[in-house]
Amino acid sequence: ESPLYSFSVYVSTKHAMNGFFYSLQQELIAKESRVSLTIGAFGPIKTKAMALLQQLENESMVPDRLAGDLNEVAHGIAQAYVTRPTRMTYPKITVNFLRMNWALRSTRNYHENLIGKLKAPGANGTGYQDAADKIKRRAGIRKQLKYQQGYVPGDEN
């Protein structure tokens, strides 16, 4: 729910999905529908694939203390199915921190600070090309992981 350097397509898609589902949720409430909609706002979750990706890249994408537990989020989703809250946020501390961090900082300082942290040491300019190369490398690793997990190209259905 906040901008993220080098993830413009992901972030814009996420904003579009949030806008659609929050609007749909309001329409259902206004119509007093028996159908309810819980919107999930999930931060980073520790998974086997995430751990393997970090191991292959030799760097931590997200500090362990900020990533949520897979079993806890599964329990939260099951609980939300029963209790029907309008929103579910997990891990709350991480997601709320990211929201506040974005909302309380001036836009220019926020972006310059974030880009500075993500930029590779010694990179020229903003480090955009280095970030793009890193994303391509991660995509290749993710593709290899899918093949290891039994993924068959052309069998996306």
Describe the structure.
By secondary structure, the protein is mainly alpha-helical. Helices cover 59% and strands 8% of the residues. The chain is built from six helices and four strands; from the N terminus they run H-E-E-H-E-H-E-H-H-H. The strands form two sheets. A two-stranded parallel ribbon has the order 1-4. A two-stranded parallel sheet has the order 2-3. The longest helix has 23 residues, at 8-30. It is globular. The mean pLDDT is 78.
Strand content: 5-15%
* Helix-and-strand structural type: mainly alpha
Shape: globular
Number of helices: 6
**How is the quaternary structure best described?**
single chain
Helical content stands at 55-70%
Largest sheet, if any?
A: 2 strands, parallel
Order of helices and strands: HEEHEHEHHH
Spatial strand order of the main sheet = 1-4
Q: Whole-number radius of gyration?
A: 18 Å
Q: Average pLDDT value?
A: 78
Distance between the termini: 29 Å
Number of strands: 4
The stretches of 5 or more residues where confidence is low (pLDDT under 50) are none
